[in-house]
Automatic annotation (TrEMBL), chains A, B, C, D:
<protein>
    <recommendedName>
        <fullName>tRNA(His) guanylyltransferase</fullName>
        <ecNumber>2.7.7.79</ecNumber>
    </recommendedName>
</protein>
<keyword id="KW-0479">Metal-binding</keyword>
<dbReference type="InterPro" id="IPR024956">
    <property type="entry name" value="tRNAHis_GuaTrfase_cat"/>
</dbReference>
<keyword id="KW-0548">Nucleotidyltransferase</keyword>
<dbReference type="GO" id="GO:0005525">
    <property type="term" value="F:GTP binding"/>
</dbReference>
<feature type="binding site">
    <location>
        <position position="30"/>
    </location>
    <ligand>
        <name>Mg(2+) 1</name>
    </ligand>
</feature>
<dbReference type="GO" id="GO:0006400">
    <property type="term" value="P:tRNA modification"/>
</dbReference>
<keyword id="KW-0547">Nucleotide-binding</keyword>
<feature type="binding site">
    <location>
        <begin position="75"/>
        <end position="76"/>
    </location>
    <ligand>
        <name>GTP</name>
    </ligand>
</feature>
<dbReference type="InterPro" id="IPR025845">
    <property type="entry name" value="Thg1_C_dom"/>
</dbReference>
<comment type="function">
    <text>Adds a GMP to the 5'-end of tRNA(His) after transcription and RNase P cleavage. This step is essential for proper recognition of the tRNA and for the fidelity of protein synthesis. Also functions as a guanyl-nucleotide exchange factor/GEF for the MFN1 and MFN2 mitofusins thereby regulating mitochondrial fusion. By regulating both mitochondrial dynamics and bioenergetic function, it contributes to cell survival following oxidative stress.</text>
</comment>
<dbReference type="InterPro" id="IPR038469">
    <property type="entry name" value="tRNAHis_GuaTrfase_Thg1_sf"/>
</dbReference>
<keyword id="KW-0460">Magnesium</keyword>
<comment type="similarity">
    <text>Belongs to the tRNA(His) guanylyltransferase family.</text>
</comment>
<feature type="binding site">
    <location>
        <position position="29"/>
    </location>
    <ligand>
        <name>Mg(2+) 2</name>
    </ligand>
</feature>
<dbReference type="Pfam" id="PF04446">
    <property type="entry name" value="Thg1"/>
</dbReference>
<feature type="domain" description="Thg1 C-terminal">
    <location>
        <begin position="140"/>
        <end position="253"/>
    </location>
</feature>
Length: 270, 270, 270, 270
């Protein structure tokens, strides 16, 4: 078969290796999720089931791609950070981002029922688009995550007041939008507190801070059956260290989180 | 909230716009599908259910991304060709390939049961990786598709003889491999014919040629209830043209296919 | 010496291979040439010496880089077109454009005196910046050259009227600018003709059309001293074909030029 | 004029902005300098005039492009380092490297006579090719410069012994090459010392270490004529700080150089 005659087309592929010694961030965003959330009757302003499914899918990505050192998600987006020195897929941007997008999307469908049960079936396959961004320094990377968490805060405060005005205040969505035009964070907090007796600070950290996934080492004790030198068999307790993905809903803008988890980032001057 | 302070990180994103006036090909490949096919007991050498699911997922991608003019798949891979003049996602390579990878993967899980029924549940979410390649001329694009179809032929002939030797000839996989070492296409055809009375040419085109998906216009006649000028209502037959994704299992290496479907490719000198 | 310890830094270099089967255009533009032309007392609106030096330098580039099939220049810019199938420098964009920029710049200084003589010494080393653009089809490439020649025409007509108004009409530069605001090509032709009796169409093609450099084959007859079979020596006339860079100042927007020089461009469907 | 009709070709230009917060290194290498040095009778193993011209041309580049914080050269190559936060040419790689290549090349021809006098005229315009490499950390950048300086050392030691064997030892170039095959640095030092009484360590730092150009601030006292409050005029001595390019021939592999010039590099965690 004239295979070789066509094989020249391989040379049209171009190299997209990510610059060495930079953090590689892959961010996914839900496509047409406004429509998707309506058709699947997501509760407003936040649907806890949907946020759980996002985190579950992100965990599935981290378990497949071990060089991801931290992931951060909120609303219908999730960011995955590959360590500076990662050589996964020879650092080819296209492979990294499509693999993340693919694993996340198939997981989202696969685990749907675990979070939405039988009440709300998945009506059609959803999709996410992705991008790759490189960050050369620890400062840049922390600022990226801070940017996303600040975005989470701004959006969640807005959505919380908006839907409270609609659901409990009886306003139409147009009226609620009008009411909030030009208000600052302090104004929104005040509306919640004085009109609805809601203390925004007491809201769930999951909603205010989003979800941060990191690897954590745990000592596990398992029982193993072992053969002793005298040929006797006995059950022995064995302690071993295992890495697990752990979810946090804490502040990542300040330095405390990074001081408590010094092993996430590598040294800048390497 | 100090949102603006972090926003500078957006500028680290780089532009990956695809060169204008080139066909954009996104190819997906199954990841670790050797293991996946074993764990899900795919029949050898080909699992018709799995090929059907691949095509169904590819159709789902085409219906979401209308600028795809042709798609070609075989085994655990599928290639999608965006028309030269496409401006989807402003031709940004990352968006195009992640969207394709995501839509395909979520569809693969979503439609699994339609093809595998209750007998073979999906055990874990599979993944596909992708890449983007640009082709400047019609010749290059046809040669790309010919390359993939020639690859399909070579692999399918090999796999057909290999698994026939194992399943019907009683050889071990090691023996079958040894037997086929150094054989040419003619030798393999001869083994099939003289030892197992199989005429390879009579095998299913789906297996020999893979699957080509294109858009086809069909005239559909639908019945509509319309109000006449005299306020009377009557049922009227209305003919309208609809685009549908149609599957072919024919040769795309020769010119015939392209002559019969002249609207797929745009003129070179544009 | 600890050479190997540092050699890892080579891996930070990224690949910038130009897409195959596309024309590679390198365009150079003079840097701060407004100031440069004033300090070197270029005649206005055009300095024939300077245009000659630009062409001489461009020829020097073409003679060094034989895969350049056509070059086009006007004012302080020059574009060089590498053939589609060129493999110079493995099609690495950085190598191609820096080599062109370097050869052009050193030639500009080297040949300065040939064009400006002793009257106008070169006061400091000038510089040019460059860029690479790819064109997938013959239509695109011709349109690129047409774009530059249309730009030449528009600028030259404007400059011709502007400097005629200043030099012969006695206007200040501010008055001339004011006078030309909002005028169309026809208006400018009219000013030249009715006020200064200048027929713009009769102006030099060098100025109206710019300079197009292409390779041309010429038969040359040279005399060689050869030894005959009988050991006698005799002078023999030998005809050989030689490629030479030839300058044209003709229209490249219409099809005539391309029909007369069919060997410049390669076939689209290759 | 149908200018707009062609203007679409501008969109084929692609963005090549360098990743933020990385050092941008542009390295130039002489093209076909083996031939060039022979035709211009460069002295072996080093031609002091040629090295002076290289440095003079590099200084010309630094004075034009002020964001270059350090440059390092040896033999027929020179590297220029733009500061991390540079926004010259909007960090467009093509503009940066072609401008450097162009300025360097025109300077090389322009200053030739200053270094080679009337004895050795420049026979033809030489050229240099260039490339861009990004380095995310101070460690990476120092290692890049160390790599070049280690290369300088290795080559210069080899060339020194090689040409001593030829020029003073009477060996042919083939014999000298044979003699040096497989020798280590210590062996080469020993040959120089025991056979020719040359102490390599006492050789000129210019040759052993290459040339490092950095900016240095100097206080200059100039005399200015100033008007006093009582309208009297008087000459006044004014001290002002000026930046000048300064050449060094010292070690840049160890930390001492960097500790003495802390203002060259920016902080990593920025």
């Amino acid at each position: 078969m004239a295979k070789s005659k066509f094989e020249y087309v391989r040379n049209f592929e171009t190299d997209d290796t990510c610059l060495r010694n930079c953090y590689i961030v892959v961010r996914l965003d839900g496509r047409n999720f406004h429509k998707f959330t309506e058709q699947h009757k997501f509760t407003k302003p936040n649907d806890i089931r949907a946020l759980g499914l996002m985190s579950r899918s992100a965990r599935s990505v981290m378990e497949e791609l071990e060089d991801i050192v931290i992931a951060y998600g909120q609303s219908d987006e999730f960011s995955f950070v590959f360590k500076r020195t990662s050589t996964w897929f020879k650092r080819r941007a296209s492979k990294l981002m499509t693999h993340v997008a693919s694993q996340f999307s198939s997981s989202y469908v696969f685990y749907w029922k675990e979070f939405f049960g039988e009440d709300q079936p998945l009506l059609y396959p959803p999709s996410f688009d992705g991008r790759v961004v490189l960050y050369p320094s620890n400062r840049n990377l922390k600022d990226y995550l801070s940017w996303r968490q600040a975005d989470c805060h701004v959006n969640n405060l807005y959505n919380t007041v908006f839907w409270t005005l609609v659901q409990r205040g009886g306003l139409t969505t147009v009226q609620a939008e009008e009411r909030l035009k030009g208000t600052l964070a302090a104004d929104k907090n005040e509306i919640l507190f004085s009109e609805f007796n809601i203390n925004y600070n007491a809201e769930s950290p999951l909603l205010k801070k989003g979800t941060t996934l990191i690897w954590e080492k745990r000592d596990e004790t398992v029982t193993k059956r072992m053969k002793l030198p005298n040929e006797e068999e006995r059950e022995v307790a064995v302690t071993r260290s295992r890495r697990r993905v752990q979810a946090h809903h804490c502040d990542v803008i300040g330095e405390q989180f990074w001081e408590e988890h010094r092993d996430i980032l590598e040294d800048d001057n390497c």
